[in-house]
Design a protein that fits this description.
Largest sheet: 5 strands, parallel
Distance between the termini: 35 Å
Shape: globular
Number of helices: 7
Mean pLDDT: 94
Strand content: 15-25%
Low-confidence stretches: none
Number of strands: 8
Keywords: Glycosyltransferase, Transferase
Helix content: 25-40%
Order of helices and strands: HEHEEEEHHEHEHEH
Structural class: alpha/beta
Protein name: Phosphoribosyltransferase
Organism: Streptomyces spirodelae
GO molecular function: glycosyltransferase activity
Pfam families: Pribosyltran (PF00156)
Length: about 220
């Protein structure tokens, strides 16, 4: 199973969440996208659920020299969330990653300012919060995001993705109340392999998507 693009993936995911909305209690829903790739997916979900859309900027902490290999992540001003097993296997300490964390936190702040401007963060307490990304590989970024939201006491916390590794989906079941994942290929490798068209998403596309919705 491959998705044509993030728009199709978002519509398929929205259909599953509409069914959840119909059969279960999802009070006062709020859709939070993990930018950049999660934004086109989340926009379709927000549209289908008639829910506001906003972003939750979380940043992966990459392996020094191999930034694409995530060993941790940050969200908000919370301390980093690390994959302890990966750190041990790689012989890394948190201290050695301090400069990477500082760099990623600065980039996180830049994106928050760019995407949100002067708007405050949306109210989370007592709401059904649906965190959306375009896929889960290790799941470490989603883990940081979910923990950040959980501290704000949502009524229900849902993680929704079109595709994810079975290991990541299982591990994140302890962080969210519900994980919705349409496709869990046994041999996963990378998120982009499960899309026919998987372009980079620009900052401009993120801000345009947010301007097309009403956040409250």
């Amino acid at each position: 199973m491959r998705f044509a693009d993030r728009i199709q993936a978002g519509r398929d995911l929205a259909a599953a969440l509409r069914e959840m909305q119909r059969t279960e209690d999802l009070p006062d829903p709020l859709v939070l996208a993990l930018p950049r790739g999660g934004v086109p997916v989340a926009a379709e979900v927000a549209r289908a659920l008639h829910a506001p859309l906003d972003v939750l900027v979380a940043r992966k902490i990459g392996l020094p020299g191999r930034p694409e290999y995530g060993v941790g992540a940050i969200a908000g001003e919370d301390p980093p969330v690390y994959d302890a097993t990966a750190l041990e296997m790689l012989g890394l300490t948190e201290d050695r990653l301090a400069s990477t964390v500082a760099r990623e936190r600065a980039e996180m702040h830049r994106r928050q300012d760019l995407y949100r401007g002067n708007r405050p963060e949306p109210r989370v307490a007592g709401r059904s919060v649906i965190v959306v990304d375009d896929g889960l590989a290790t799941g470490v970024t989603a883990r940081a995001a979910l923990r950040y939201i959980r501290r704000q006491q949502p009524a229900r916390l849902v993680l929704a993705v079109p595709v994810g590794s079975p290991q990541a989906v299982t591990s994140l079941g302890h962080e969210a109340d519900t994980v919705v994942c349409l496709h869990q290929p046994v041999v996963f490798e990378a998120v982009g392999l499960w899309y026919e068209d998987f372009p980079q998403i620009s900052d401009e596309e993120v801000t345009e998507a947010l301007h097309m919705t009403t956040t409250h």
